[in-house]
Design brief:
The protein is mainly α and 82 residues long. The protein is 52% helix and 0% strand. It has one domain. The model has no long low-confidence stretch (mean pLDDT 89).
Length: 82
């Protein structure tokens, strides 16, 4: 795996993990006993925790990238005919 394909794999994994973590821990105001502020969507989250989700996506994507790198370089996973 060269640096370009490795970077592409990491970016795809990062976005995948980020979109998976987006709904985690999100609670709208009505679940917390509050009312939505005027002009806000009733289902909008009170706290979105985006920084933690970005950090978690970075770490988890790095671990998954390491597994993918190991699989590809060890020839356990190959798309080339032998």
């Amino acid at each position: 795996m060269n640096w370009f394909s490795g970077g592409v794999v990491y970016i795809i994994l990062w976005w995948l993990v980020f979109f998976v973590t987006l709904p985690v821990g999100v609670r709208p105001p009505h679940e917390m006993g509050r009312e939505a502020e005027p002009g806000h969507e009733a289902g909008a989250p009170v706290r979105h925790h985006l920084l933690w989700k970005i950090l978690a996506s970075t770490v988890v994507a790095g671990l998954l990238w390491g597994v993918a790198y190991w699989l590809i370089t060890s020839d356990m996973l190959s798309f080339r005919p032998r």
